[in-house]
Amino acid sequence: MLDRIRDDPPCHIRASPLLEAHAHNRLRQINTPSTGIVTNTRLTHGTPSALYARSPSRYWEDDAKVPVHAHATCKDIARQLVENEPGRNINVLLGGGRRHWIPMTEFDREERDQRGRRTDGRNLLDAWVHDKKTRDLHAEYVWNKAQFDGVDPRYTDYLLGIFGYSHLDFEVDRNKGPTGDPSLVEMTVKAIQILRKNPHGFFLMVEAGRLDHAHHYNMAARALDEVARLEEAVNAALKLTDASNTLLVVTADHSHTMTFGGASVPRGNPVLGFDKETSDLDGKPYTTLLYGNGPGYAHTTPTGRQDLTGFNTQDINFVQQAAVPRKYETHGGEDVPVYAYGPGAHLFSGTIEQTYIAHAIAHAACIAEDNNHAHRRGPEAGSPRSVGVERWLAGVDVDDSASPPTSLSLSPPPPGEGSLSRDRTPTPPEPRLNGGATFC
Question: In order of start, what are the domains of the chain with their CATH numbers?
Answer without folding.
Answer: 17-256+335-423 (3.40.720.10), 260-330 (no CATH)
